[in-house]
Amino acid sequence: MSTDRLWRRDEEVPAAVLEAIEQAVVLHGRQQTQGSDARDIAVALYENGELIAGGWGRTEFQRLYVSYLWVREDQRGQGLGGDCLRQLEAQALRRGCVDALIETLLDEVSDLLEHLGYVCMAHVHDYVPGFTRHIMLKVWTPRG
């Protein structure tokens, strides 16, 4: 029995295929667990109609997963990142989340997150040359 198998690599693999692989992995993982309630969560701050800060992620299994948190460069240093994070946290708490998870490669962001109540659960030195990956967790209600 012969098959016509064909490997495609790098640029030969269309973006739609990459997305299909990602969705299949996520679906498989969720099928292994019980009670997935994944929902997107987002916040965006505008000034004079222009986006100046925002963040998004998801809530699932009573946890806030923050994927992205961003402040426009000329608006940094004013506390807007912390404000965005607090907005996401407030929404997550209303959804019944008991903790929040966020990762960063920047030491100064890790320090800010600690100031906001997050604890470094793990870090990987030189995750990207010259940068440490910080995995941060904030617990509102301990899990049983």
TrEMBL record:
SUPFAM superfamilies: Acyl-CoA N-acyltransferases (Nat). Residues 4-142 form the N-acetyltransferase domain. It comes from the Bacteria. InterPro entries: Acyl_CoA_acyltransferase, GNAT_dom. This is GNAT superfamily N-acetyltransferase. It comes from Roseateles terrae.
